[in-house]
Amino acid sequence: MGFVKRFGSVALLATCATMVSAQTTKKSDDSAPVNATGPYYGPWQVNATIDPKITPNGPLYTGNYVAPTTAKYDYAEVIHKSYLFYHSQRSGKLPYQRLAWRGDSCFKCTGSYGEDLSGGYYEAANTMKWGLPLGFIITQLAFNLWAFPDAYVAINEWNEGLEAVKWGTDYLINAHPQDYIFVGQLGTSAVGTTDVDFGYFGPPEEYEMWVPLGIMHTALYVTPQEPSSEITGESAAAMAAASVLFKDTNPAYAATLLNHSRVLYNFAKTYPGTYNNNTKFALAKEWYPSSQFQDEIAWAAAWLYIATNEKAYLNDSITYYNNQSTQDSWSEYSWDSKGAGLHVLLYHITKDPVYATNAKTYFTQWLPGIGSNQTIRQTPRGLGYYENWGSLSYAANAVFLMLRHAKDLGYTDSYAKTLVNFAIQQINYILGDCGRSWVVGFGENSPLRPYHKSSYNSYIDYPMRGQNQSLVGDDFLNSFTLNRFILYGALEGGPAMDDSYFDDRTNYVYTEVTQDYNAAFTGALAGLVDYYGSKNFQPFSDCGLDLGWGHKNASKPPTWPDDDCYHTCNKNCSTSKKASSMPTGVEASGPGATSTPTSAATSLTQGLTLLSVSMITIALSLLL
Ligand SMILES: *[C@@H]1O[C@H](CO)[C@@H](O)[C@H](O)[C@H]1NC(C)=O
Ligand SMILES: *[C@@H]1O[C@H](CO)[C@@H](O)[C@H](O)[C@H]1NC(C)=O
Ligand SMILES: *[C@@H]1O[C@H](CO)[C@@H](O)[C@H](O)[C@H]1NC(C)=O
Ligand SMILES: *[C@@H]1O[C@H](CO)[C@@H](O)[C@H](O)[C@H]1NC(C)=O
Ligand SMILES: *[C@@H]1O[C@H](CO)[C@@H](O)[C@H](O)[C@H]1NC(C)=O
Ligand SMILES: *[C@@H]1O[C@H](CO)[C@@H](O)[C@H](O)[C@H]1NC(C)=O
Ligand SMILES: *[C@@H]1O[C@H](CO)[C@@H](O)[C@H](O)[C@H]1NC(C)=O
Ligand SMILES: *[C@@H]1O[C@H](CO)[C@@H](O)[C@H](O)[C@H]1NC(C)=O
Ligand SMILES: *[C@@H]1O[C@H](CO)[C@@H](O)[C@H](O)[C@H]1NC(C)=O
Ligand SMILES: *[C@@H]1O[C@H](CO)[C@@H](O)[C@H](O)[C@H]1NC(C)=O
After folding, report:
1. Residue 350 · residue 359 · CB < 8 Å
2. Which of 269, 259, 276 is nearest to 299 (CA)?
3. pLDDT for the residue 608
């Protein structure tokens, strides 16, 4: 990709001028695939006296990795923590608090059609909802469950996985107020040269109080005149994939999703276009440039075929697949590019060897070995390194597809064995084989200073509350203070090309976390549980985790039912009975249920009882 893929930062604050110029340069530097000889890509911002460069001490990669015959890491634990990370990203009125340091937010998030846009997930460190990556993570979270259902059920993560999908699809339903009107973005990252969301470093719970320029979360719409087939296509894919999961247990909800998916798919096809061409979405294009939209249409059609079994969708998927106008989509699997996912999905559906061949072409780029045609470099300790910004996620995305494809081929197939071997090597690198863990709150030397705002400045602990955001941002970026709460499960961007790393928030190219990094990663872990055999893993629970409830400003933790083995230390649950995922006294939300602005306002006042009266007054004056 020839572009900066994300930023999620303080582009324009004066304190970050050097970062901005480095960033601008990077756009062109980054167009090369991966440069194994250059030590770093990123604009390291280091104060060496306090911030040592860390080179992990794992063994160097020798070129002939042999995966352990029994699982080396507790993949079930990482899945559990990865889903916790999605809780840290939740927007809107929370039915219950899983983390003491995250509460209700997005109090003024009503769209122009009166729709409630408070739900869904915030992107990365910020409170933006960018349509394309948001749609992708929901599709991928559904894809994970679809790909390895038995593993998720066996380790008691299935219900949690469904809940994570539904938190996303509830938002997508609301974001679709009319057939050919869809919310393509919620929030304002900047206005002119002034950062708004990107210049806000406090917790989402207090956004309305302190955001620069006082600009509330506003919605930008995809319309027939200003189309985005990548956003409507990806959102259609997400809803179709989710409908498959809910078909048996919540058929009404599945039907609602399918209806929205069909309409959005027609929207994408009938009004083809990319948001790159639309000045309204100029900032989306800057941070999440889309390379094309044909792949999202093919992707949506494939998932609609899986959901409906209607041949016309399969036909469409293949037509668009065969007509992808650039090679881009074939070299990466990501929020932007679905080509490789289509190879695997279309092979699964049709068993036509042409898709297996294309999948192989994609995988070959990653696979090392004698006589290999690998084009993607590996770090000295063996990470497949696609690009510096989010390197771990590109590897995790690729190995998720490898694992799913291996399952289709059968784990005893010799090519499947090659794929699985590489997948284990990559995932184990991430979890500790390189000499450290890259997942917050898991394993040895896990990261302490992820580039993530609410785990640093939480609504229950925000020492600089009320100060100029430029100072708050300076502290967030440049202080060496640890994030105050543990952002369990977040997969960081990753190392430099030489495996090295600085554990600080300044080097956000490497320390940023975001839901799309974790999405296929969560599925790849389930793939490994499936491969090694789920009977070899124990369900993991919140027992012993520090979710912030011990903090002196924390409210009361939810009370879980006695027979809940997911959130409590109780280990005595029969396997046939899935754990409850709602605390006592909380109604499970019905299909598409959403909070009303009134109830959100009430909970704001409840949530802020720790704040001074004057702050509550400010909060209320914003709401009224
Ligand atoms: C790779 O990095 C080296 C050292 O930083 C640089 O001289 C060279 O031009 C780079 N090559 C490419 C293809 O980017
Ligand atoms: C680096 O950190 C030390 C210790 O906090 C401080 O004294 C020094 O001024 C810092 N240097 C720079 C260039 O920021
Ligand atoms: C879905 O759409 C069909 C046809 O328009 C309609 O009959 C049905 O009631 C819709 N179902 C839901 C759950 O919205
Ligand atoms: C988008 O704009 C580019 C040039 O800026 C043009 O080549 C392309 O055809 C446009 N695409 C669509 C779908 O409008
Ligand atoms: C399949 O697609 C082709 C064009 O690619 C079209 O001519 C044909 O009618 C389609 N068939 C169905 C069943 O939709
Ligand atoms: C194939 O893609 C090209 C370029 O993206 C587009 O102009 C053309 O209409 C597409 N053809 C079909 C059948 O979708
Ligand atoms: C690499 O490509 C060459 C030429 O296409 C082919 O003969 C060889 O089998 C490939 N190697 C592997 C490991 O696929
Ligand atoms: C909560 O706790 C921290 C430190 O323990 C304190 O500095 C802060 O002011 C407290 N109150 C609020 C409302 O954040
Ligand atoms: C915050 O600080 C910046 C930079 O020092 C300054 O330009 C701006 O006016 C300040 N804003 C407020 C509201 O004081
Ligand atoms: C485990 O649960 C069953 C019923 O679900 C109960 O009969 C049994 O006493 C429990 N065992 C322990 C050790 O709590």
Report:
1. no
2. 269
3. 35
Q: By C-alpha distance, which of 236, 234, 223 is closest to 295?
A: 234
- Provide the annotated active-site residues: 503, 512
Separation of CA 330 and ligand 10 centre (Å)? 52
Q: Domains of the chain, with CATH numbers?
A: 75-536 (1.50.10.10)
β-bridge partners, 183? 221
CA angle 562, 564, 569 (to 5 degrees): 85
Q: Ligand 2, atom 14: nearest CA belongs to which residue? A: 47
For residue 462, the ligand closest to its alpha carbon is 8
Q: Which residue type is seen at 256? A: T
Instruction: Give the whole-angstrom CA distance, residue 452 versus residue 476.
Output: 9
What whole-number distance in Å separates Cα of residue 215 and Cα of residue 207? 9
For tokens 């300044």, what's the residue?
506
Nearest ligand, CA 40: 1
d(CA 287, CA 413): 41
Does ligand 4 come within 6 angstroms of the Cβ of 277? yes
* 3-state secondary structure (DSSP) of residue 222: strand
264: helix, strand or coil: helix
So what's the pLDDT on residue 593?
Answer: 32
Q: Phi and psi (nearest 5°) for 110?
A: -100, 135
CA distance 440 to 81: 9
In 142-192, at which residue ranges do the beta strands (DSSP E only) sit?
A: 182-186, 190-191
Rounded Cα distance, 78 and 526, in Å: 10
| C-alpha torsion sign, points 409, 412, 418, 423 | positive
Burial of 222 from C-beta contacts in 10 A (0-12 / 13-18 / 19+) = buried
Helix (H, G, I), strand (E, B) or coil at 221: strand
Tokens standing for 21? 């110029």
Centre of ligand 3 from the C-alpha of residue 173, in Å: 14
**Per-residue pLDDT tens for 558-596?**
999 888 899 999 988 765 445 666 777 776 543 333 322
pLDDT number for residue 478: 85
> CA–CA separation, 91 vs 122, rounded Å?
6
Among 502, 515, 498, CA closest to 449: 502
The residue nearest atom 5 of ligand 9, judged by CA position, is 470
Which residues of the chain fall below pLDDT 70?
1-51, 325-329, 574-581, 587-624
Nearest-CA residue for ligand 5 atom 13 is: 312
| E strands in 352-426 | 377-378, 384-385
Which DSSP helix (H) or strand (E) runs through 135? Answer: helix 131-147
Whole-angstrom distance, CA of residue 317 vs CA of residue 323 = 10
**What tokens does 309 get?**
């079994």
